[in-house]
Structure formats: structure tokens, C-alpha cells
Amino acid sequence: MPNSAPFFIRLQQCTRLTDPACDDVVVQLSFSALAHQSLPTFIAGQYVRLRLPKQPELQGSYFALASSPNDTTTYDFVIKAMHPLSEALVNLAVGEEVEIEGPMGKGFDLSEHQGKNIILMGVGTGIAPLRSVWLDLIQHREDYGSISIYAGFLSAMHHLLTDELRSLADHNIQVSISLATGHDDWQDPVGYVQHALAGNQPSPENTVVCLAGMNVMVDACTETLLDLGFNEQQILLNF
User: Fold this and answer.
1) Beta strands at 173-179 and 97-104: parallel, antiparallel or unpaired
2) DSSP states of the chain as a string?
3) Which of 86, 215, 199 has the alpha carbon at shortest distance from 78?
4) What is the mean pLDDT of the chain?
5) pLDDT digits (tens, 9 = 90+) for 216-225
6) What domains appear along the chain, each with residue ranges and CATH number?
């Protein structure tokens, strides 16, 4: 169930994630609770509705939480400037407040899958709900088997959370990064995440997969997973 009433959060930090030379602007926004408040708990992979009370002409929209569900002081988001509200959000000044409603959606509840291997797959800003998942998995790493992440980006300039993804090896989490457009120095997969998955051919035995991204990506990855022997009950969506 979503939080029953809208509330406010305050922008604490804005960090650009795409290369400064990239035309696409993607940022990580970190919001804090207001004084004497705590943020509602949530399930990794859930989302909220954001709106700007100072710009009521902008319709509210939905964004996935990208922070740890174990943190009740900060909500993180990964947002791309692509419509009026998201453009306004990426240009917010530190200290400004946003109205929020939620959390909502079923998220990725992995509590029923302890002991299993976990695969996370996402592209672009679809990495946001998956970040929430891997931060939660790190806190409970001993409860799961192998953990693999397949992330895809358009180019090296669009590669999000670069350092954080690299650091996941310290937690025994394997990461595969695919670029749709490679370059001479790029040694990792070129193409789409489903191509990297098909190339690795992970076993479906005792494994569940969390998918996040555009519908066309989810459909393509689902088809590849079914071809590899996974069944639909092993493929989890957060909506």
C-alpha cells in the first residue's frame, strides 16, 4: 500500500551521471527527510510520484527509488531530463522541496527467494530500481547465492554509476556492462544486454531475474531468458 498522504522531501545533493559532453542529462538526486521526520520504508524496486508545488502547471510523474530500502533518511533517484517535470527536477537547487506520494508498486521482493542465485538486468535509467535491489542485497549478501548484474547503456558517455558498479566486485557481485555503441578502448560487450546474457548462458536452476527498463527491453530480455530455459515465474518485474 502507498503512503496514505503526500509529504515533502528536500534536495540534498545533485550529481550529474552522464559525461558533461553528452547531450543527454542524467543526474542522481538525493533527497532528505524534513526536520523531525523519517521517510516511509519501501521494498527495493518500488516507485513514487513526484511533483513540484512551486510549478503546479507541471503534472506529477512516477520515478523509481534508487536508494537502499534500509535507509529511512534519504531517497535517491536517477532521472533523465526528457520532459518538463524531469527537466525541472534535474535543475532543482539544493534545499528546494518536492512533494512526494508513495512508495507504491510491488517492487522486487526477494525475501521469498533466499538461497537462490539472483540476476539483475536493466538499461539506462532502468538502473535506478536495480540500484535499490543491489544495495539491499549487499546488506544481506550471505542470504543469496551468486549475484550477477547485466547493465546496458547507449555509449560510454551514457554509462551511469560507473565507479559504484565497479566496486560491486568487492561484494562478490559480478557485473557485465554492455554499450550499444562501443569504441576502440572498450573491451566489454557491445550490443544489448540480452546479447551479453545469451553469450554467458547462465543456468536457470535455482535462479530468479529482476528486469527493469523500457517495455521493448523487457520483452527482448524475457524472450532470451525463456530461450535459455527460464520460466515466467523466475522473471520478476517491479510493476
Assistant:
1) unpaired
2) ---SS-EEEEEEEEEE-S-TT-SS-EEEEEEEEPTT--PPP--TT-EEEEE-TT-TTSPPEEEE--S-TT-SSEEEEEEE--SHHHHHHHTPPTT-EEEEEEEES-----GGGTTSEEEEEEEGGGHHHHHHHHHHHHHTGGGSS-EEEEEEESSGGG--SHHHHHHGGGGTEEEEEEESS--TT--S-BS-HHHHHHHH----TTEEEEEES-HHHHHHHHHHHHHTT--GGGEE---
3) 86
4) 94
5) 999 999 999 9
6) 7-104 (2.40.30.10), 111-236 (3.40.50.80)
Amino acid identity of residue 175, one-letter, is V
Q: Cα(180)–Cα(192) distance, rounded to whole angstroms?
A: 6
| pTM score of the predicted model | 0.94
The residue length of the chain stands at 239
Grid cell 521469498 is found at 112
Nearest to 137 by CA among 69, 49, 37: 69
